[in-house]
Amino acid sequence: xxxxxxxxxxxxxxxxxxxxxxxxxxxxxxxxxxxxxxxxxxxxxxxxxxxxxxxxxxxxxxxxxxxxxxxxxxxxxxxxxxxxxxxxxxxxxxxxxxxxxxxxxxxxxxxxxxxxxxxxxxxxxxxxxxxxxxxxxxxxxxxxxxxxxxxxxxxxxxxxxxxxxxxxxxxxxxxxxxxxxxxxxxxxxxxxxxxxxxxxxxxxxxxxxxxxxxxxxxxxxxxxxxxxxxxxxxxxxxxxxxxxxxxxxxxx
Amino acid sequence: xxxxxxxxxxxxxxxxxxxxxxxxxxxxxxxxxxxxxxxxxxxxxxxxxxxxxxxxxxxxxxxxxxxxxxxxxxxxxxxxxxxxxxxxxxxxxxxxxxxxxxxxxxxxxxxxxxxxxxxxxxxxxxxxxxxxxxxxxxxxxxxxxxxxxxxxxxxxxxxxxxxxxxxxxxxxxxxxxxxxxxxxxxxxxxxxxxxxxxxxxxxxxxxxxxxxxxxxxxxxxxxxxxxxxxxxxxxxxxxxxxxxxxxxxxxxxxxxxxxxxxxxxxxxxxxxxxxxxxxxxxxxxxxxxxxxxxxxx
Lengths: 252, 297
Known about the structure:
By secondary structure, chain A is mostly helical. Chain A has helices at residues 2-38, 59-76, 81-86, 91-128, 150-177, 182-198, 200-208, 212-215, 222-243; strands at 48-49, 56-57.
């Protein structure tokens, strides 16, 4: 009952930012698709890969993952702790509500990703006359062979969202524990995000590569989901002891 | 069995070298309205933050209904702490705030909340960011009263409120307390105005408990005696003199009379208003006089 009340409140407060994000994300996807179709050479803001003989990009997907990581670190920065503890809510309940809220957001982001990739593929098809590619685009090259199946794509994308979200939550929680204000957490996250975009080789070789085993599955993708969910649970479990010692008075 | 709503033992809180609370011992019985008084920086808010589990003490114990509030959901759900500011998200509407409160407080009374909204003239369709300072305070009052929490704490509840709303709040507290007795702590600087609500007074100064006393008893023993010097001094015999002023031939003594005062024709006797009494009590010299007179510890 109490968690339900908290979730309702979280959703009501997040409604407007989520709508704004959807608009920006979809508009960015359409704009990107149009620009890359018009341009004589391929314009990729993210990372390309040709290890399997074809060139793919995961620009659209990486943006969703990065933004979700940023959102999670803001949630982890305990922005709501000050307010909620005065409403007689324990840190355990705040943690549980945060984790549930992140899971709901991750599910939503995954659906949005599917929609965006389809829109991107549709725009490219209309602009260039190439065949409709759907979910074969984007994050496929790290994932299971059958990522073009929307259900598999959703499950894998959702679990990866959970994993990056958990890391973001831990990041935000640590910063909050060190009395760093929420606005600074946001700024640091944004700088890290921009740095990653401008240093794709560094990201690929030093951040993604060591964790590549987490994203690969020759089977139906469920192994990826299991690995990501276990990883998320471990990271969240590591966050909790830090989160429960954050004083509401100093955060905010 | 612990019968106290609030009990602290040796409670201390340090911010670096600054002691916000220093070996603070307090015992509050359930079912009373307490006035928590102190100057700015006396340690009132720190005490309330520790009691509600928002802040961690440096040493000592703080129990609510026999247990620490920190991470104790059974205890936390019995506490409603209304701060000076609400810290709600700017875009939420009043009805959404009330919906959250109804899910958090087990004794929440929705109908009473609706009546209070009307009493304080709040439109529940308004967003939090559209509320004036006074309206924010009014929303806090609605939540604090309608929560019917076993321990309800108001920290400066009347900030930004006009006189009419303040009076309505005081009346609402008295009426609701009569029907639903619980422990209420009100921390305020508007002492005289709220004094009719208080059953007990807790006065804090410099992070220490200066005085905890029955409000009526305290008021009935603190008097101004004015008149001709000789008559005033005679009337004040056996009392603890807190302050004295003279104007021409008239002497005014502020006294604490443990055994009351006899009215005589040659002097004028008046009760000291609570706010003035508070100012006198936190004076270190007067405090020392009262301690020597055995009035306080």
